[in-house]
Amino acid sequence: MAPSQATAQPMSFVRVSPDQRSFLLDDGSPFIAWGFNYDHDEKGRLLEDYWTTEWPKVQEDFREMKDLGANVVRLHLQLGKFMKQPDEPNEVALSRLGQVVELAQRVHLYLDLTGLACYHKRDVPAWYDGLSERDRWAVQARFWEAVAGRCSGSPAIFCYDLMNEPILPGDKKETEWLAGELDGKFFVQRIALDLAGRTQQQVAKVWVDRLVAAIRKQDRRHSITVGVIPWALVFPKAKPLFYSKEVSENLDFASVHFYPEKGKIDQALTALAVYDIGKPLVVEEMFPLKCSAEELGVFIDGSRKIAEGWIGFYWGKTPGEYRGSNTIGDAMTLSWLDLFQKKAATILSRTP
Predict the structure, then answer these.
(1) Has this prediction a pTM greater than 0.70?
(2) CATH fold group of domain 30-349
């Protein structure tokens, strides 16, 4: 595929603006994140399950996402695929990640690299689950140092997301690191099993700072964030944990995951405002799972005063491949992709 005039141009680095409210490119022009979570394909396989044997598929999917109007793709990297042993990164996986970064740069797609995933329980190394909190964090730091070392020089990196939806225990000691199984995958992960006399804020800050320091050993340029469950949407009086003043000092922007409910768009926008903490705000996950695509569009429009990006989902099939299907899931995904294309031009141009 010959590069278009747009993709033939050099790719600019993305950075947070001096006033900490938005994103800018190297030339000072604004950058709005608009894209997809590429967390699995149409068969439910995680990227590392097919990126070696079906590399042409990965290339095709990236081009399809670009053609749909995306400028950001969020990848979810499994810790078990990138760490062979507690102190030994997997060079084969890092090499393949490097190829993905090169692909993104050719196609002009920025990458949100989300790490430490344990989505498929069968792929979690037994040695990893047996580690103490301290040793587990040490492995997580080595993961991020290895990933950042491989990716630091590329303008195709939008950000590093430390972990998808980390949570902490309450007063009761927990026994499982993973929580919240959904369709055979575990998207939620605890960063501690026991507060051991500490506050949740104290644990979260030490964890964030430890992983940020690991990344900064290799990469002092790209932004760092952590994608969170917006508890303010569930409990209206809830306060941010990872985006509290105590914890968020070394995070460059806020990332939240929103699935608005039918008839409750105003409540979702009120909850989103809780995460407007004086740093750029990105809706890192969204989908018309509990509402219509039309209502999700209202949510996007209503959040444009405070958000600097929105990332939905793409699962390896174009809108044309969904048309004609009579399944509810396919109809829902098609409505989302149609909405994505419809809004792409106005979002990226900042027009009303």
Answers:
(1) yes
(2) TIM Barrel (3.20.20)
